[in-house]
């Protein structure tokens, strides 16, 4: 996440290509959403811009939503351990302390990830920057009781929260 934030006025004036490039990482491994959101400019506020990413994901076809959910790596999973996740995902996971877990905590994440994939056939996605290890574990236990449709909606809600924080990182704050 080394891309420097830009003021909203400048973002509203970027070429479609530059806008899509600036926001390519807002939805994990899914840069095409940034093209769609860019076409909805101008945005009156950073919150409106963030909401447009969440709305783009919520309005998509269920199969595309599943592909978006599946684009996320497992929390504290093999890819994260091997440093093979996006810069955004790595820094988010580190922010919740997932980069330094006890062996019991690793084992708990492993159990959760396995149970999730077995039940829903997609990874457990949660906005880790709004959570702690404890609430991430709690959330997993609660969400494992969901139906597949409920859980798809819960994952998309979290993806909207993740996207909002990523957008805030990419837009210069104004007083
Ligand atoms: N929450 C925030 N970032 C991520 C991620 O990369 N993967 C998962 N599973 N959840 C997240």
TrEMBL record:
Pathway(s) where this gene product acts: Purine metabolism; urate degradation; (S)-allantoin from urate: step 3/3
Pfam families (alphabetical): OHCU_decarbox
GO molecular function: 2-oxo-4-hydroxy-4-carboxy-5-ureidoimidazoline decarboxylase activity
Protein EC: 4.1.1.97
SUPFAM superfamilies cross-referenced by the UniProt entry: UraD-Like
BP GO annotations: allantoin metabolic process; purine nucleobase metabolic process; urate catabolic process
Keyword field: Decarboxylase, Lyase, Purine metabolism
Highest taxon in the source lineage: Bacteria
Known catalytic reactions: 5-hydroxy-2-oxo-4-ureido-2,5-dihydro-1H-imidazole-5-carboxylate + H(+) = (S)-allantoin + CO2
Gene3D superfamilies with a match to the protein in the record: Oxo-4-hydroxy-4-carboxy-5-ureidoimidazoline decarboxylase
Domain Oxo-4-hydroxy-4-carboxy-5-ureidoimidazoline decarboxylase as annotated: residue spans: 12-167
NCBIfam families: UHCUDC
Protein name, per record: 2-oxo-4-hydroxy-4-carboxy-5-ureidoimidazoline decarboxylase
Lineage, uppermost ranks: Bacteria, Thermotogati, Deinococcota, Deinococci, Deinococcales
